Amino acid sequence: MLHADQQQTRSILSWPMGSLAGATWPHILVTLGVTILGGVTLVGLTKSSTQCLSAMKQRSQ
């Protein structure tokens, strides 16, 4: 049977949940910036592809 002390259990459980215990503000701000940039890019690509698909649908009719 496996036996883990409390510290091992905490580290095992916090890793998949994304613990921010060791994060610094500069790291958080960079991550936030990349996340926002990625979100804006995805929204832009979605609108662009939707317009393209609509135009293709209109041409085929």
From TrEMBL:
SUPFAM superfamilies xref list: ABC transporter involved in vitamin B12 uptake, BtuC (SSF81345)
GO cellular component: membrane
InterPro entries: ABC_BtuC-like (IPR037294)
Compartments, record wording: Membrane
Domain of life: Bacteria
UniProt membrane topology term: Multi-pass membrane protein
Keywords assigned: Membrane, Transmembrane, Transmembrane helix
The protein's name: Uncharacterized protein
Organism expressing this protein natively: Corynebacterium anserum
